[in-house]
DNA sequence: TTGACTTATCGTATATCTACGATATGCGAT
DNA sequence: ATCGCATATCGTAGATATACGATAAGTCAA
């Protein structure tokens, strides 16, 4: 991003953030859904499905590819994309570990003390 | 984002993209890691841990809070944050479904035909 | 009330993102 | 070689993100 300080953070955090960033747009979520459903889709077919111009779709595909989430197969003039399932699984695993969704919910331990009320929320 | 067309996409895709966007920065990943580890941390302690100014940390906390990933408890002048585990679990579940990491790897079905070579990759 | 402390918000500069038309590039067929 | 198709890239405009200093606002203690 702008004047970013990513270099000051651990590699794993930067990597996870990049993965999240690749998914941080509805069009890219939609593209992944299409690839999930049809295994392999060419650029033109994606353009037909999304409310975006061809150049924009190509840009989103490039972003997903740059993040390592796609496989590209070229057949004649067509570019056929599929999911890089292994990479996605790997990222999801790191994600689970970081977000810790498998851990206990600590909310019970965080009952606000009687003398602590909310101010801004 | 800029001149965004999010409104043209299904609500679930927009929602997932927003979740991903909330995690699309190493600082926010780091904050979640801290909250995971210590259950509850106040803003000042996060500032001490990250290589960012207080204003910037506050901004990142706001982004996480806006995405619904945090709980805020105010104790005196301090703002104590903890994870909204329920929300995170919910998002992760949607994530799993969309990314389909539990599905079979189709790469075997996608062996390039003999007459299709790679051009740009 | 004053002062020290904590946090959020404002204002701002810069970089990146989003989106698209136009164009370039590559492929296969004629 | 030329044409038509498919896709990537370029150039650009406008919106958003990142980062920080300065400041506001609120809390507690004295």
Give the N-to-C terminal Cα separation of chain A: 29 Å
What would you call the quaternary organization?
A: homodimer
Overall average pLDDT of chain A: 85
Query: What name does CATH use for the topology of chain A?
Result: Arc Repressor Mutant, subunit A
Shape of chain A: globular
Please mark out the parts of chain A with pLDDT under 50 across 5 or more consecutive residues, or reply none: 103-121
Q: Based on the structure given, which CATH architecture of chain A is correct?
A: Orthogonal Bundle
Name the biggest interface.
Answer: A-B, 63 and 63 residues
In CATH, what is the class of chain A? Mainly Alpha
Task: Provide the gyration radius of chain A in Å.
Answer: 20 Å
How does the helix and strand content of chain A classify structurally? alpha+beta
**Number of H- or I-type helical stretches of chain A:** 5
